[in-house]
Design a protein that fits this description.
The chain is an alpha/beta fold. The protein contains 14 helices and 13 strands. It folds into three domains: 127 residues, no CATH class; 206 residues, von Willebrand factor, type A domain (Rossmann fold), CATH 3.40.50; 54 residues, no CATH class.
């Protein structure tokens, strides 16, 4: 006779925890923009990479704050007792090491060398050894996809129910999806035949007989709504002011760019999204590198950002071309013809403003719309943005880091009703 032996269930906290919940709790840390050290040197950014020591501290903070779903139902007293028990029994470090191992094994982070918790014992002072604690790690594309999806879901949840589609217009075209009345076939149309309309035309001409002679003029095809494609460049201000004045404005902007990328990739596959960072100068950056970016030098070279955005959009064969500019400061820098950078942070410098508006005028002549999302409302910035909006027939939004994502996504999705001529 076959017997089944049952043993006592031993819970495995590290194995039971959801990696998605843990990643969500660590999102602000993984996407940090330098707000924790507003006086750090931008040019030393590579020296400020994430280390396993930092990750340990952040995981412990997330556990103690009860930010994982596993602890959501606990009251603060129960949670505190559980954390004290883990600490007293020496299981906290073991739990954190197991979670880091899972993050690496499941592809959420990549470590410079294989993670070995046994080579990283904690000293009595609470500091980890150099053998493993100072090892650098990077956030993988899998993590970025998840964080972008989670941000997009949260933002759309705050907007209410939304019917996704494409950028619909009032123009009709032939296609596979049926949404309009049939039309007589013309050379060049997609041959998506409307059988009923085609047969009806032939019967009206020749009468009901067999065989039925169908001529070229009898052919009718389905119509569908013409769907335009859009090329978007997100111009993200990463000057030092984005983390000063007691508020981190850059991290929410990074999250919005990730959410917009996720939206375009999943709902508007015919569209394109590029990213331009502008500070003392400007640079194009792959969306996949966005999570690793921190704030840049101190000034705002809006003109150089516009020039780079135009070069990117000129390569795109899309019906609509737009620039989404996220900034908290007026233009205060200018790249001169000899490559030197002219800087003036005091007021609206006439030279800087005039050269910047020249680029805005070029955008208008190229059919590029500029929509500006302002994270500040100082007089100089408002004056400049109003002028940009007038010249490019774009929109200007006064918003906050907390509401930025809602404004950007609402503006992007509202383009479904825009008619292209």
């Amino acid at each position: 006779m076959k017997f089944t032996k049952y043993s006592k269930y031993v819970p495995d906290p590290a194995g039971d925890m959801s990696m998605e919940d843990l990643l969500n709790a660590l999102a602000d840390y993984l996407l940090q923009s330098g707000f924790h050290d507003p006086y750090s040197n931008f040019y030393e950014m590579d020296q400020g990479e994430h280390t396993l020591d930092d990750l340990r501290r952040q995981i412990q903070a997330a556990l103690e704050a009860g930010e994982l779903d596993q602890f959501m139902d606990m009251d603060p007293e129960q949670l505190e007792q559980l954390m004290d028990k883990l600490q007293s029994e020496g299981k906290m470090e073991q739990l954190i090491d197991q979670l880091i191992q899972r993050m690496e094994q499941e592809g959420f982070i990549s470590v410079d060398k294989p993670f070995d918790p046994n080579s990283n014992p904690s000293t009595a002072a609470g500091q980890t050894g150099d053998a493993q604690g100072q090892v650098k790690f990077e956030v993988t594309d899998k993590s970025l996809d998840f964080l972008g999806y989670r941000t997009l879901r949260d933002l759309l949840g705050s907007l209410g129910k939304a019917n996704f589609g494409r950028h619909d217009t009032r123009d009709l075209a032939t296609g596979v999806e049926t949404s309009g009345a049939a039309k007589q076939y013309e050379f060049g149309d997609t041959l998506n035949l409307d059988i009923n309309a085609t047969l009806s035309s032939a019967i009206q001409r020749e009468g009901l007989q067999v065989p039925l002679n169908i001529e070229y003029s009898d052919l009718h095809v389905h119509q569908c709504e013409y769907q335009s494609s859009c090329a978007t460049v997100v111009m993200l201000d990463c000057s030092h002011s984005m983390i000063l004045y007691g508020e981190d404005r850059f991290t929410p902007a990074k999250k919005v760019a990730m959410a917009l990328s996720q939206l375009i990739r999943t709902q508007y596959p015919g569209d394109s999204l590029s990213l331009v960072l502008f500070h003392d100068s400007a640079e194009e950056l792959p969306i996949s590198q966005l999570a690793r970016v921190k704030v840049g030098p101190y000034y705002t070279n809006t003109r150089e950002g516009l020039r780079m955005a135009q070069r990117i959009l000129q390569r795109q064969k899309k019906d609509m071309k737009q620039i989404v500019m996220i900034t908290d400061g007026k233009p205060s820098a200018l790249t001169l013809e000899d490559g030197r950078i002219y800087k003036n942070a005091f007021g609206l410098d006439p030279l800087v403003v005039s050269k910047t508006l020249e680029e805005v005028s070029r955008c208008k002549r190229s059919g590029i719309m500029i929509n500006t999302f302002m994270l500040a409302s100082d007089f100089g910035l408002v004056q400049f943005v109003q002028k940009v909006s007038e010249m490019c027939r774009g929109k200007a939004y006064f918003t906050t880091p907390q509401r930025l994502g809602e404004y950007v996504l609402m503006d992007y999705m509202s383009r479904k009703m825009k008619t292209i001529h």
